[in-house]
Amino acid sequence: MAKQSAKNKKKPEKKNPKPATALKTSQQDFDKLSRQILVLLQEDGRRSFSSIARELNVSEGAVRSRVNYLEENEHLRFLAVIDPVNVGYRCWAMLGINVSAGSSPHDLATEFSMNPNAIWVGVVGGTFDIMIEIWTKSPEELQQFLEDFCHTNKNVSSVNTMVGMRMYKWGAPQI
Questions:
Q1: How far is Cα 28 from Cα 13, in angstroms, rounded to an integer?
Q2: What's the structural domain count of the chain?
Q3: Of 59, 125, 136, 155, which sees the most CB atoms within 10 A?
Q4: SS3 call for 120
């Protein structure tokens, strides 16, 4: 077997999540068909293109191409949404983080976004620089997260931990 030269070797593909950004277009830029498709997919993300096409009285190809366009332009992502409590996550918290002087909120938010316990990470304006939602399996795991990623992080000046007691609503914005 011949050795592959370093030049021809394929590099492993990185699977770093892209930071969520504001939509490239406003809601007004979506036409009626795109909005109708999005509403139906929000109700059931596993719904078939043919079922959507029948309900909207358009071709399956029209639905498929519209959904592909929305995905390619980062207006739509398909995710499996779980109920964290029912799969073993018993502790959740919102963390309000202030960044140390000279540190970048963007860089720190990017660092936190790579952590699998961080469910939502955003740079915000107001009292905090960054807000993070985390889920852990126990209060002890939450404490360890705070120790490992917040209290010992030189880029974190302070962290305000708001432990969830009971959730009343959980969802996504409707189109």
A1: 36
A2: 2
A3: 136
A4: strand
Q: What is the mean pLDDT of each run of 10 residues along the chain (175 residues)?
A: 43 45 52 91 92 95 93 85 79 96 97 94 97 94 96 97 86 71
CATH code of 94's domain: 3.30.70.920
Q: What SS3 state is found at 123? A: strand
Distances (CA, A) of 98 to 27, 58, 150, 175: 32, 50, 10, 32
Number of CB atoms found within 10 A of residue 67's CB? 19
Rounded Cα distance, 109 and 97, in Å? 10
Question: Is 92 strand, coil or helix?
Answer: strand
Q: Which helix (H) or strand (E) holds 49?
A: helix 49-56
Please give the model's pTM, rounded to 2 decimal places: 0.66
Is residue 162 within 8 Å of residue 92, measured between CB atoms? no
* Range(s) of the domain holding residue 129: 86-163
Do residue 90 and residue 67 come from a single domain? no
Phi, psi of 126 (to 5 degrees): 125, -140
